[in-house]
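> example.struct
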C-alpha cells in the first residue's frame, strides 16, 4: 500500500499567493485581537487606530487576492487602493480628532 502524504498539499498551498495571503490574514487577526484586548499599548486611542489600520489592511488583502483585483484593470486596482487609503485616513482621522 502506498503512503499518502497529505502535508505536501498543505505546503504547496502555503507557497501560493492565496496561501500566503491566508496566513497573513490569520496573523493580522491574531495581532489585532492581542492589541485590542489590552495587551499591546497603554494608549487606547493608539491601540484603536492600530486595530483599525490592521482591519483596513485585511480589506486590502481580501480585495486584491480573493476578489482577484490584482488581475483586474489597473484603474479598478487604483480605485480600490484609493478607497482603502481614504477609508484609513477617514476612520483613523475621526478617531484621533473626535
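> example.seq
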Amino acid at each position: 500500500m502506498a503512503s499518502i502524504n497529505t502535508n505536501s498539499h498543505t505546503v504547496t498551498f502555503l507557497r501560493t499567493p492565496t496561501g500566503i495571503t491566508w496566513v497573513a490574514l490569520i496573523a493580522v487577526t491574531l495581532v489585532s485581537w492581542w492589541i485590542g484586548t489590552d495587551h499591546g499599548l497603554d494608549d487606547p486611542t493608539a491601540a484603536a487606530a492600530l486595530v483599525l489600520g490592521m482591519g483596513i489592511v485585511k480589506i486590502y488583502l481580501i480585495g486584491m487576492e480573493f476578489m482577484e483585483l490584482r488581475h483586474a484593470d489597473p484603474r479598478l486596482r487604483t480605485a480600490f487602493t484609493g478607497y482603502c487609503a481614504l477609508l484609513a485616513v477617514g476612520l483613523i482621522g475621526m478617531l484621533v480628532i473626535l
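> remarks
Helices lie at 7-14, 17-39, 44-66, 74-97.
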